[in-house]
Specification:
The complex is a heterodimer of chains A (about 650) and B (about 625). Chain A is built from 22 helices and twelve strands. Chain A is α/β, with parallel strands linked by helices and about 650 residues long. The chains are: A alpha/beta (about 650), B alpha+beta (about 625).
């Protein structure tokens, strides 16, 4: 027996005893320190200026060669495309795009994919991507770069970005006539938003799957030609050829980000070509708000956290990250006509084209895959960032509460017991200590944990069962009903299952440990999600104390636990968003509309998880919800707790 | 069964016939010839293929004659003296030949450096061949300024089925050894071109070689330098030998990348200058220009001196021939230039039909742990074709034979069906970490108008930290696969017949089957790579510190710490002294007892045992005390 397992150390340690006495204070100190540290990160003293780590990029080393004729071509192509769009109200003019690729001398291919919509009752949707490959003269097709543009048909509900394809084509025509390419260039026009991109990438990296035997929802199909190992990708969304500003989107699937070097590269080149650009760039009017730099930075940070936490990519670039291809989206916004800046339509796109050329030439220079700079960072300002080493302490401080509390509860478990015994049996000089730890109901608690986990996991499985899908209710109501049913089961569980003596304490310790580990892991994978969840739930976890006798505090903890129920949280978030989106609605309408929106949100999250591999839904069902059930059990601890002490008294 | 038979027959067929047809022509004298040729073929999609071939053929007779070289470079003669090499092929290539649009090249080469050689001698062993092979590669590393010195046993294999000796008598197979290696990472540039040109009799001073200016030929989409050495000795008369050195330069120009972007081109635009004459050493100096197919679009000035129609396997190709020696016959001739004038206006891009057989290769899977190598072979012909595929997988990638699958699909379908092709031929030599590459050869019949997808799963190895190249994150290369087949038709087929040595030997060279080898793309794999930067070093250092600190921390954490409470020692000072004295006395007495025992061994072992038991009891009581005090 050594330090780790010596019982004589933990029970009679004065330090532990005194810490245990101030446990709650200690936890709140940790919590405050974590949040304060995070707030401080927005201060310029706590974050760093960006720099280019990869020397091979050398942005702006070459003079841009793309000229006004490319702009003229883009204009002409846009006019042609507008004519084509009249005939293709809900489809992509594949033939026109292919004809253009062919005319420019690219190898042109199409890619078909099929979506078996999980809730469609066997319905299938078909899509078709078009791509052209420019074979680089300096390489044997071992490496490639992707330039992609999503195409949206006229009846799409999203913003119109018709000009992306002409810009892409104009650049392709320019690039075809250059002989310095050392990586194959793939020009890809996708349809069906992210679905097309996901299918293309899956087909590229996972190859063919047998259509009939595969049970996947997205049948990615096969690609007739490839361009080696893809090194980087640039997605272009252009609203109009007259560009006001460029918003650089980086957040990818599950909160993954491209290498910071790539973002810096884009910023440098854009600045050089005189294009206003930035991360979360907003139109000029909003930018004129008189905010202090600190406040602006904090807003930027929080908005990045909000986008990242959902795990949903905010552009087609986000799907590349899973395959270790660094990618981002240039989203060029349309210039408002009443702007006082007069622009010449015949040269309006030249700066944008020049910057695309500059970025592509820098990427072309890359000898190695992006590896130098950061993959985990938070952008504070366009030229300032926080690295993982700086922001992790904030999360660690928050989560430390649960570990400290778990340790102290564990080590004072015997002490409390001994006091009780001494009270009961008077001052007997019995040296043999009755260790409570040996008699704890480990098996029962384990079973209880497994039951909660199973209830949570059902949320992943049940809505996708065939026999349930055959019921004649829509996807949204079905999923929502399932989740509410599971929720009810979770809420009811502690009323039906009474833990044996000591079970509550053990459950509490287990919950604290699982909670801490889960949040650390989630925080490493997706910092934003981990941090936001920790910031919301740590106070509740700290306040929970199944053995306390303070009624008011217990009531508060119960209320808090109820408020933090995943469904309630989702509803609240959606409600707030709806309120901002539709301020004209009455309160009752608002509540109803939010219910519908929750239904959609839940369904989309489920679809995201089965098609794109977004694990937010999975984590919410399998990690957060079981944890919540345990919290709820602990918050309701009153009856069972009394029983325990009664039982104890009887034994004694 | 039938497929297997046909395949082996076809494979064996080609080299057999050669020896007999060639030998009677030999005479007992040394004669040496040099020929220079240039072939220009417009290809689909605004590409132009130019192929230079310089052939030196020396009928040297007896071995002794190799000491006196004239046109043949001395290095080649010396190699033949020193090593038992009979046939040698070297290719230095940049880019990838696109079979689907360009058809087949005249000589095949894979990206980077490729080297294979046949050795033959009565008393050769595998080990001695390995040694000779490495030395040979080193010699050519010096001659061509290429990294061929990296060829060794870890990246060389002995192909079993796919390569056949072209020129060697196929008598005793047990004395013939072949070695093959590729260096896909090799980058080919001027430094290889200059020494390559120095092997020519006229160097780059005159003749067609003056056109090979590095500034122009390295701006092409594909360029490949080749060196081929073949020797042949009469099997009855060893003093009747000949050596043939063929140097080839195969280039593909992209007309869109030339400065003025219309479809016209000329020798001057392609090579930067016109032709200033012919090599005086050359027996013949000719330019062949393809006139039909893609060449039909162009008008030539000056018009060719003669036209040759070649019918190969029912496929007609029309060549215009310029004899440069005639061209420069009269004194005062100026620079010679040929111009191809394209059609005015927008030429319609006609759809080219792909060649009968082509292949692609790619890597599937994500992550740095494992993946799948997929090779796709497509047969557009209306008959089944025999296909042999050779894979050389480097040692840092583990291939698993049990995952080898050949699935097929009809050409018009997008998805592969679940039916698998059976292979009629399989040779597999598993790799060994840091010693041997995995060598896989499979043969199968590819049904008509269908594709086959050959996949094999691989694991990536975590290398030792010194085994990573300086640019570790670039990835490691897997060389291209080699695919061999026998085509029944001559469409798109332009390679020289095996017994021929001039380009004109390929005219009207109809054969029952046309041996074809294809090369696929090379692959880049990202092996698991540590972050070679400051944090990496810090981690290494921290791990060392942890390793050093582990021992003490472990012992503190696990070992029992006993504080000996000396309760037997009385508190009183006087008694303490008495106790000390008694304890010392008792200890001394036991010592003396022991000494006595050692001195008087004849006392028997019984006593010793008793003593030992006593001591044990003493120890036990002491330990009991300790436990009680705890």
């Amino acid at each position: 027996m050594g330090l780790l397992s010596d019982p004589s150390i933990s029970t009679h340690n004065k330090l532990v005893d005194s810490l245990a006495k101030h446990m709650r204070k200690l936890c709140y100190v940790f919590y405050t320190a974590g949040v304060a540290w995070f707030m401080c990160l927005a201060l310029p003293e706590f974050n760093h200026g960006t720099y280019l780590s990869e020397n091979a990029l050398s942005p702006g080393l070459v003079y841009p060669e793309i000229r006004i004729d490319a702009n003229r071509l883009a204009l002409q192509l846009l006019e042609e495309l507008q004519r084509e769009r009249k005939d293709h109200q809900s489809t992509t003019p594949h033939a026109w795009i292919m004809a253009k690729f062919n005319e420019f001398g690219l190898e042109t291919y199409t890619h078909n994919f099929t979506l078996r919509y999980p809730f469609g009752g066997g319905k299938e949707f078909h899509g078709k991507n078009v791509y052209g490959i420019l074979r680089a003269p300096r390489i044997g097709s071992t490496e490639g770069l992707v330039f992609s543009a999503p195409y949206r048909p006229p009846n799409s509900v999203h913003d119109e970005i018709t000009a992306s394809v002409p810009v892409l084509l104009a650049f392709a025509d320019f690039a075809r006539r250059k002989n310095y390419w050392a990586k194959d260039l793939v020009f890809l026009v996708t349809e069906q938003e992210q679905l097309g991109m996901q299918a293309w990438l899956e087909a590229y990296h996972d190859g063919y799957k047998n259509y009939h035997s595969s049970s996947a929802y997205l049948v990615a199909g096969s690609l007739p030609a490839r361009a080696g190992s893809l090194q980087a990708a640039l997605n272009i969304e252009v609203q109009d050829l007259e560009v006001d500003y460029v918003d650089v989107k980086v957040e990818g699937l599950n909160g993954k980000l491209p290498n910071l070097d790539m973002f810096n590269l884009v910023q440098r080149i854009m600045a050089r070509e005189g294009v206003t650009s930035g991360y979360k760039h907003a139109p000029r009017k909003r930018r004129r708000m008189n905010l202090s730099p600190y406040e602006q930075n904090l807003r930027q940070m929080l908005s990045m956290l909000a986008t990242q936490a959902t795990g949903v990519p905010n552009g087609n670039h986000g799907l590349f990250h899973r395959y270790r291809i660094d990618a981002l989206t240039l989203s060029a916004a349309k210039r408002v006509t009443n702007s006082n800046v007069k622009s010449n339509p015949s040269s309006a796109t030249v700066p944008l084209l020049k910057s695309i050329e500059g970025i592509s030439r820098s990427l072309n220079n890359l000898l190695e895959r992006f590896h130098q700079s950061f993959f985990f960072y938070v952008i504070v300002h366009n030229d300032r960032y926080i690295s993982i080493g700086d922001y992790m302490p904030a999360l660690v401080a928050l989560i430390a509460c649960s570990f400290v509390k778990a340790y102290l509860s564990w080590s004072t478990l015997d002490a409390a017991e001994r006091h009780a015994q001494q009270d009961a049996a008077g001052n007997e000089t019995d040296p043999v200590v009755f260790s409570m730890k040996l008699s704890l109901p480990y098996g029962f608690v384990l079973v209880y944990l497994v039951v909660t986990l199973v209830i949570g996991y059902m949320g992943n499985v049940l809505p996708l069962q065939k026999y349930l899908m055959e019921l004649s209710i829509g996807a949204g109501p079905l999923t929502l009903t399932m989740l509410i049913a599971l929720n009810v089961a979770g809420i009811a569980l502690p009323f039906y299952v009474v833990l044996p003596p000591g079970g509550l304490e053990l459950l509490h310790i287990c919950m604290l440990l699982i909670y801490g580990c889960a949040l650390i892991v989630i925080g490493l994978l997706n910092f934003s999600l981990g941090f936001l969840v920790a910031a919301l739930s740590v106070p509740m976890v700290v306040a929970l104390n199944p053995s306390s006798r303070n009624g008011a505090l217990r009531g508060l903890a119960r209320l808090w636990a109820l408020l933090l129920n995943p469904m309630v949280v989702i509803y609240t978030v959606v409600l707030v968003l709806t309120f901002y989106e539709f301020p004209e609605l009455t309160f009752q309408q608002l509540l109803l509309r939010a219910v519908a929106a929750v239904m959609d949100a839940v369904t989309f999250a489920l679809i995201d998880s089965v098609i794109y591999g977004n694990w937010l839904y999975f984590a919410a069902c399998t990690v957060f919800f079981p944890l919540w059930i345990i919290c709820w059990t602990l918050a309701l601890a009153k009856q069972s707790d009394n029983e325990i002490s009664h039982a104890k008294l009887k034994i004694n | 069964m039938i497929a297997e038979l046909a395949l082996t027959l076809l494979l064996l067929l080609s080299p057999l016939a050669l020896g007999q047809t060639q030998i009677p022509q030999f005479q007992y004298q040394t004669d040496e010839q040099f020929h220079e040729e240039l072939v220009v073929r417009p290809l689909a999609g605004d590409h132009v293929n130019t192929y230079f071939q310089f052939t030196t053929r020396w009928h040297y007779g007896v071995h002794k004659n190799l000491y006196h070289t004239q046109l043949t470079p001395r290095v080649i003669a010396e190699i033949l003296q020193t090593y038992d090499v009979k046939e040698l092929h070297i290719g230095l290539t940049q880019g990838l030949w696109r079979y689907e649009t360009w058809g087949y090249p005249i000589v095949e080469a894979t990206g980077g450096a490729e080297l294979w050689a046949w050795f033959s001698s009565p008393n050769l062993t595998d080990d001695s061949v390995n040694k000779q092979w490495m030395r040979l590669a080193n010699v050519f590393s010096g001659i061509l300024c290429a990294s061929l010195n990296f060829v060794d046993n870890t990246n060389s294999i002995a192909p079993k089925h796919i390569f056949r000796p072209q020129f060697m008598e196929s008598g005793n197979r047990s004395h013939q050894f072949v070695r093959y290696a590729t260096l896909p990472r090799e980058i080919v540039c001027t430094e290889n071109l200059t020494p390559w040109k120095k092997l020519l009799p006229c160097g780059s001073a005159s003749g067609l070689a003056t056109l090979l200016n590095s500034g122009y030929i390295h701006n092409t989409k594909y360029h490949s330098l080749g060196v081929k050495v073949r020797t042949l000795c009469d099997s009855d008369d060893p003093s009747n030998c000949l050596v043939e050195l063929t140097q080839t330069a195969n280039l593909v120009y992209d007309l869109k990348l030339l400065e003025q972007s219309n479809t016209d081109f000329s020798l001057r635009r392609l090579f930067g200058m016109g032709l200033n004459g012919y090599c005086e050493m050359a027996s013949s100096s000719k330019i062949y220009v393809q006139l039909n197919e893609q060449g039909e679009r162009f008008q030539l000035t000056p018009t060719p001196q003669e036209e040759v129609l070649s019918t190969v396997g029912g496929h007609n190709v029309l060549f215009g021939v310029y004899d440069i020696q005639q061209q420069f016959e009269e004194p005062g001739a100026r620079l010679f230039n040929i111009a191809w004038l394209g059609p005015k206006g927008n030429s319609k891009r006609e759809h080219t039909s792909p060649p009968p057989l082509y292949a692609h290769r790619y890597l599937l899977g994500n992550g740095q742990k494992h993946g799948r190598i997929a090779t796709e072979v497509t047969n557009t012909h209306y008959e089944p074709l025999p296909v042999v595929l050779m894979e050389l997988v480097p040692w840092y990638v583990h291939a698993y034979l049990h995952t080898l699958r050949i699935s097929s699909k009809p050409q018009h379908l997008h998805e592969y069906t679940s039916n698998e092709l059976k292979f009629s031929l399989l040779h597999y030599a598993p790799g060994k970490q840091r010693e041997l590459p995995t060598h896989l050869e499979i043969g199968f019949m590819l049904p008509a108008r269908s594709s086959a997808l050959i996949t094999i799963e691989v694991d990536y190895l975590l290398l030792k930290w010194l085994e990573y190249p300086p640019d570790a994150n670039h990835g490691h290369y897997i060389g291209s696969a080699v695919i061999g087949s026998q085509l029944p038709i001559g469409r798109n087929y332009t390679a020289l017949p095996l017994e021929g040595y001039l380009f004109q030997d390929s005219f009207n060279a109809s054969q029952p089957a046309y041996a074809l080898t294809l090369r696929t793309e090379a692959l880049i794999v990202s092996l698991p790579t540590p972050d070679f930067s400051m944090p990496y070093n810090v981690i290494c250092l921290a791990c060392t510190v942890v390793a050093l600190a582990f021992g003490p921390i472990h012992s503190v954490a696990t070992k029992l710490i006993i504080v000996e409470r000396q309760t037997t020692i009385p508190r009183n000072l006087l008694r303490k002294v008495v106790h000390k004295l008694t304890s010392r006395f008792s200890r001394r007495s036991t010592n003396t007892v022991l000494n006595e025992q050692q001195n008087n061994e004849q006392n028997g072992k019984g006593k010793e045992k008793e003593n030992e038991q006593e001591e044990k009891q003493l120890d036990q009581t002491q330990s009991c005390d300790k436990q009680a005090h705890m």
